[in-house]
Amino acid sequence: MSSSSAVPAAKPPIRDALVAAAFRLFLERGFEQTTVDDIVALAGVGRRSFFRYFPSKEDVVFPDHEGCLADMTAFLAASGPEHEPVRRVCDAARLVLRLYAENPAFSVQRYRLTRQVPGLRAYELSVVWRYERALAEYLRGRFAGRPDGTLRADVIAAAVVAAHNNALRSWLRSDGVGDAGAAVDHALAYVQMTYARPADAPALWSGPAGAGPGPGGDVVVLVSRRDAPLWRVVQELETVLDRP
Amino acid sequence: MSSSSAVPAAKPPIRDALVAAAFRLFLERGFEQTTVDDIVALAGVGRRSFFRYFPSKEDVVFPDHEGCLADMTAFLAASGPEHEPVRRVCDAARLVLRLYAENPAFSVQRYRLTRQVPGLRAYELSVVWRYERALAEYLRGRFAGRPDGTLRADVIAAAVVAAHNNALRSWLRSDGVGDAGAAVDHALAYVQMTYARPADAPALWSGPAGAGPGPGGDVVVLVSRRDAPLWRVVQELETVLDRP
Question: Which domain, by its residues, includes B31?
């Protein structure tokens, strides 16, 4: 995705072994009843090895989020003025989906575990918050100097995260069956339709060479009853203008 | 607000004394360096009194959120079909603002403390999440059976919370100076403008008696170049139709 993301280094086998041992014990005995000593004993490594890879027992449940946050930050930092900002944060959110969709069985197990353990729920909320802040900071930069720039940035970042998580959680609740990517695309399209400004995406509006926007463009006439709800009028406009 | 919210019972003086003692110590020594024993010693009560009112040291920092969550739930439960749902969740969010605006000095102190202590930040995220779920559950009920009902409910709830918190935090960062209510109204108006469906708010559209919407309503004709950005067309429509 991002040109700045290097080829990922091979994951150390010790780290993988710790994650596998931890999940086996969490599912057998429960998260609270499993100690770090239990995990290292099953993985056949020393206690110090655990803390070399994971600051806490909670971190082993979400082993890839730090890497994904770093990828997202790099992806957003590599953006240029040619990227429509709302579309860009939607694409950034898809990096998180990829993390879950790569390993459906693991993602579904973790989802069930997180639902059961309040400490993991709190940990997950803090991870989600960091993703949302990364998106909001990027949008704040793009909207700098505009009226209500920080307000719009924060609201759109929250909308993107909520749409992404609505689709992701439906998929996880259905045991990872179905096309998570299509569900997330549909949810993010709702946000893009609401907030993306076509004015920021000139490529979307240029037709074949020489037939781009200009004073001679087609004219659309829309007739509406004054009492028609605005959303119906917008829906009709979108159909007429053949926009998403 | 809600007809179902009874006159609040007077707060027990012991509870208030514990909150005051805790905050004095948190600010003097830091949150981590203060024990429950320190707090009860300063408040002049026994250790068991503390845990009668607060499950943990974190809870004493947010003494009123449980009550506010209960008020919000009651307010939403008292809604009828006559309430436009997006406006209703905006009004529900204003209950949280009231909590902060009632006591600006305390709110600003707590904001500073929360920024410094990761455990309190995590606690605050879980509180915000519960407010957001309360709003989303209400909207899911109102949107039941509509296409993308849960998606829209989750996105709008997140947008309302983000807008509210954008304005609230600006106010807290400015040391509680200025009109928090006006700032939150402005932020929530942005969300209402985006999502509220006039179709759900018939009162908004009826003119003088006998002149309400009907087949004989006015006709608006809008002419647009095909290459005009959609947001500009919508902006123009809003002006023509005299809608917010």
Answer: 1-58
Q: Do A241 and B219 make contact, defined as CB atoms within 8 angstroms? A: no
E-only strand ranges, A2-100: none
Instruction: Tell whether A213 is covered by a domain.
Output: no
* For residue A114, pLDDT beyond 80: yes
Whole-number average pLDDT of chain A:
84
Task: Give the closest of B190, B230, B232 to A151, CB-based.
Answer: B190
pLDDT tens for A99-111 read: 999 989 999 999 9
Query: Which of helix, strand or coil describes residue B12?
Result: coil
Query: Does B114 lie in the same domain as B7?
Result: no
Of A190, A197, A219, the CB nearest to B231: A197
User: Which residues of A fall within a CB distance of 8 Å from B191?
Assistant: 155
Q: Are A186 and A167 in contact (CB under 8 A)?
A: yes
Give yes or no for residue A30 having a pLDDT over 50. Answer: yes
Nearest to B226 among A218, A231, A232 (CB): A218
Closest CA to B176 of B124, B96, B107, B110: B107
Interface test with B, best of A59, A86, A154, A191 (most B CBs within 10 A): A154
CATH of the domain at B106: 1.10.357.10
pLDDT, position A119: 87
Q: Is B5 a residue whose pLDDT tops 80?
A: no
Question: Where are any strands of DSSP class E within chain A?
Answer: 219-225
Contact A191, A156 (CB under 8 A): yes
Bridge-partner residues for A224, per DSSP?
B220
Q: Determine the length of chain B.
A: 244
Q: Check: CB of residue B51 under 8 Å from CB of residue B61.
A: no
Task: Please check whether residue B210 lies inside any domain of the structure.
Answer: no
Question: Is residue A229 assigned to a domain?
Answer: no
φ/ψ (deg, to 5) at A220: -110, 135
Cα A25 from Cα A149, distance rounded (Å): 47
Query: Percentage helix, strand, coil, to 5, in chain B?
Result: 65, 5, 30
